[in-house]
Amino acid sequence: MTSDRFAKLDAEDPLAGLRESFELPAGKVYLDGNSLGALPRGVQERISKLLQQEWGEDLIASWNGHNWIDLPRKVGEKIAPLVGAAPGQVICTDSISVNLFKLISTALALRPGRTVVLSQEDNFPTDLYMAEGLAGLLGQERCQLRAVSANRLLSSLDEDVAVLMLTQVNFRDGRLHDMAGITKAAQAKGALVLWDLAHSAGVIPIELDNWKVDMAVGCGYKYLNGGPGAPAFLFLAQRHQDQVTQPLSGWMGHKDAFEFSPEYQPAAGMQRYLAGTPGILGMAALDAALDVFEGISLDAIRKKSSALTQCFIDQILARGLPGIRLLSPRRAEHRGSQVSLTHPQGFAISQALIERGIIVDYRAPGIIRFGFSPLYNRFTDVDRAVTALSELLRDQDYLATRFTNKAVVT
Amino acid sequence: MTSDRFAKLDAEDPLAGLRESFELPAGKVYLDGNSLGALPRGVQERISKLLQQEWGEDLIASWNGHNWIDLPRKVGEKIAPLVGAAPGQVICTDSISVNLFKLISTALALRPGRTVVLSQEDNFPTDLYMAEGLAGLLGQERCQLRAVSANRLLSSLDEDVAVLMLTQVNFRDGRLHDMAGITKAAQAKGALVLWDLAHSAGVIPIELDNWKVDMAVGCGYKYLNGGPGAPAFLFLAQRHQDQVTQPLSGWMGHKDAFEFSPEYQPAAGMQRYLAGTPGILGMAALDAALDVFEGISLDAIRKKSSALTQCFIDQILARGLPGIRLLSPRRAEHRGSQVSLTHPQGFAISQALIERGIIVDYRAPGIIRFGFSPLYNRFTDVDRAVTALSELLRDQDYLATRFTNKAVVT
């Protein structure tokens, strides 16, 4: 493919104009939106107003006057249609880690007698760690983590499994689980399902309601572009609400927080999944960032995402680059919006790419991740990334002298 | 006292210049810094740089390049001297509610065989709720909340008490506990102490190390002025560190988060009290807000705080305002930096004061809270508040027709 051909794809891209909604570093190709989404222009205006008018001028009155108190619900409801959830089932709060603790506890309470949290051993680590933390607190007789390889997940579903906890798109290789099929299989064995949508919300059409998903968590700072450490979200299907409480029962989840009653009485619905006072700066940034999605269908986003990753893979494979292996699935329907390549000198290559303005990241062992965010990435970005990688691999001396092949800190 | 006398007190106030470090609403007297601190000017600049340069331009590289990853530790260390803690014992993370869960769990693990969390029945509700949540999860045989009246606290200390959990300054009446004495008494009975510093950090000299306090939590958005829902902080004395884990064992508390190991191994020291990815916007705002404290002693802050509240109380009592009762302790050494008055028409009065630009808040039953933040409040603010209240109480018809006497939402 010639450079003209990539430019033509951009010219034909119906989502191309969305790039203008973001601040992006001049001259660089940012392919790490799977880790930290770019800055939407609307966020700066929103935060500026929040500081000057809401906090600076109106101060305490803003909890009601600017509706800070309602932000967890409001932002949750903005996320809901992006993940196929009807209103009243998503709330924005805390981190994924903390929200997993709430939901695993909920799952155990909803499935009395069952003690196992079944997961995948290469799930994102915090998911496993939070289940370990709960198991350590409750003791093995009440909670155990069973982490197995992906191909043993379905055969490991037995009558001890309270909840199957999986991440839809794997953080290392970008492989996409069949959420509908796995959910059905787990529920047939009496288990609940808890999906982590960190690497899929905002970039893949998800049908939580249609697929009868029980629970989910997701990330505000990847494809939703809410900013570094943006608050996470939490989904609990309507049919499971108001059945049990959750243990992080802070005052914001009380049915009447401002009654200041000494006894906890859980709020109805999703509000009981709130714990402490919400962080308004982070939540307001996410609120503004979500406006970029207004009027855009997830199908259109997915279509562009698949085209970007497929185009990247096709070009890489066509060039037969020495030492490079495709770790992600070759077929678009089996992967998320990232492409992972491996190379024995993966770390050195990732650093050299970054030096040349192609922003990727590295995960041991030897994995270079190229994340494509269809709201702002272009087909010409694919071209530049492939070209830079090809040139680098021809210059092995440069790599050898310039970098050692070790892991980065983040 | 004449108005001249108040102006003279301001002219003689060595901290008067600090007011210039804050954005304050023109023409108003803000007396709710005990609920939400005012906006420090430095925050706007910091957040503007964070958005434009760090997130917008440097993106993912900022986790190391601008040291986002170290913010929880760095901000914790900035708070440490304000609460009398040597380095390595304070970390900034999550909310007070979530941090209480971590520390109560830690306390139970450090005191095996003891099951009771002893607290005060009019503690701030979230403190009680979090203990209730843990008790509900673990079952009464492993954890129980025992909430008693303030005068029964010491007599309720028995060999079942794992931890005595108290808030140093009561949110309703502003009463100050004797932290040193109570800590000693509880420890003599084998219990640990967990202090909530929400209404005292940044406004009262606290000596966590000298008083041998075991654990503490505190708030970023009251007297530390970190902004709405700013992250909280958590203190654990060096001698208790690395003994046990805490159940919210997210990836940021792992000893090597970026190793992405499937097994949780807790980091040494305070880092294991981190759970998920920190919210960088909120934490950076708090980081910048704390710079106001540089070079200012807590003794000087306390001296001014006591003078402001005493001056207010003296003026109120001297005027003998009808129906007004002083709820807070009359002696400065027994109260924090707020003065609570009661009146049968407390809600109506609080709303009328707010309409006249005196920003206070209301807590049922009938309590009007006047919070004095010595970094920006003035003696002339005391004058204006007292004058406004006096005028209002002379105009009972206005109160009766303009407001109903009910609780506000927040």
Task: Tell me the layout of helices and strands.
Two copies of one chain form a homodimer.
Chain A lengths: L2 H10 L9 E2 L5 E2 L8 E2 H18 L3 H4 L5 H9 L10 E3 L3 H15 L5 E5 L4 H14 L5 E5 L12 E7 L11 H10 L3 E5 L18 E4 L14 E4 L43 H11 L7 H22 L5 E2 L11 E5 L3 H10 L2 E2 L1 E3 L3 E5 L7 H16 L1 H7 L8
Parallel strand pairs in A: 2-13, 5-6, 5-7, 7-8, 8-9
Antiparallel strand pairs in A: 1-3, 4-10, 9-10, 11-12, 12-15, 14-15
Explain the overall architecture.
Two copies of one chain form a homodimer. Chain A is α/β, with parallel strands linked by helices and 410 residues long. Chain A has two domains: 3-30 and 297-402, Alpha-Beta Complex (Aspartate Aminotransferase, domain 1); 47-293, Type I PLP-dependent aspartate aminotransferase-like (Major domain) (Aspartate Aminotransferase, domain 2, 3-Layer(aba) Sandwich), CATH 3.40.640.10. In chain A, 36% of the residues lie in helices and 14% in strands. The first copy, chain A, is built from twelve helices and 15 strands. Chain A has a seven-stranded mixed sheet with strand order 4-10-9-8-7-5-6, with helices on both faces. Chain A has a four-stranded antiparallel sheet with strand order 11-12-15-14, with helices on one face. In chain A, strands 1-3 form a two-stranded antiparallel sheet.
